[in-house]
Amino acid sequence: MRIEKVLRRAGPLAAELGAVAEDLRASVVQVQSRAGGGAGVIWDANGLVVTNDHVAREERVGVVLSGGDRLAGTVVGRDREHDLAAVRVGRGGLPAAPHRDSTGLRVGELVLALGHPFGLEYALTAGIVSGLPEPAAERPMVRADLSLNPGNSGGPLADAAGRVVGINAMVAGPGLALAVPSAVVRAFVARVAGRVPRLGITAVPVTLPPAYARLVGSGATLGLVVSALEPGSAAAASGLLIGDVVVAAGGAPLAAPQRLVDAAAL
Q1: Which position among 54, 145, 233, 244 bears the catalytic label?
Q2: Which of 42, 109, 180, 266 is the most buried (most CB within 10 A)?
Q3: Is it the case that residue 109 has pLDDT exceeding 50?
Q4: Which listed residue (53, 79, 83, 262) is catalytic?
Q5: Is 83 a catalytic residue?
Q6: Is residue 253 predicted with pLDDT exceeding 50?
Q7: What does DSSP say about strands 28-33 and 252-253: parallel, antiparallel, or unpaired?
Q8: What's the pLDDT score for residue 254?
Q9: CA dihedral 161, 167, 170, 172 (to 10 degrees)
Q10: Among 27, 102, 153, 182, the one annotated catalytic
C-alpha cells in the first residue's frame, strides 16, 4: 500500500521538487579562490555564507550570487574539525536559505543536493537519507544516497521542503555523500556571531570507568569533572556543583569537550 501511495504522488511530487529547487537556487552561491572552488549557502540575509573549510582555503574569496553578481568575501570563522567556514560579503538583503534542525531527520527521507560539480552551475541531484549522525562521533555526519562530485562541496543538503539539513562535505563512495549536520552548522554560526552563552565553568575531561558508564546508560565514555564555578553564571544557576561529572549535553553523550559548547549554542 505504501508503494502504491508513493507512485500516485510521484507526478505532483516531481513538480513540487522542481519549484523547491528553483527557490533553493537563489540561496546558493559559488565560492571561488585561487586554490579552486565550490558552493556555499547564504545562511543569513546580512551577508553570511557558510561553506566548507576546504573550499574557502584563503582568507579572501570570490562569491558569485545566483543572478551572476560577483562579490568579495572575507573568511570570518573556521571550524576545521567539522570542515566549515563562514564567509562575510558586503551586501545585505540576500535570500537566506531556510534551515531545519538535523536532529529530526529520519532514514529514508528525500533530500536534494545543489552545487556546481565539474563547473556545471546549479546541478541538482536527489536521493534519500541513508544514515544519521552518530551523537558520540567526533565528527558527526549525515549520510545520503545521492551523487556528489567536485564542486558540490559547501553546497546544501536540503529536505523536500527546501530546508537545509546539512552542508555537503565529501564523498565516501559511489553514491554515498556525507554532509555536516545543520545542528553543527548552527552551533558554528552562533560561535562566529559571538552568541554562545558563557557557561561559567572550568572542567577537566576524564574517561568514565566502564561500570560508571553502564550505570549512566547514555552511551557516554567521556565525562567533564567540574573543577570551578563562576558565581552567578548559567552553570551555577542550573544547580551544577564542583565535583559533578557532566556526561551528556543536548541529549547526546559527550564525545569531546567541545560538544558541551556546541549544545549550549543550539
Answers
A1: 54
A2: 180
A3: yes
A4: 83
A5: yes
A6: yes
A7: unpaired
A8: 65
A9: -50
A10: 153
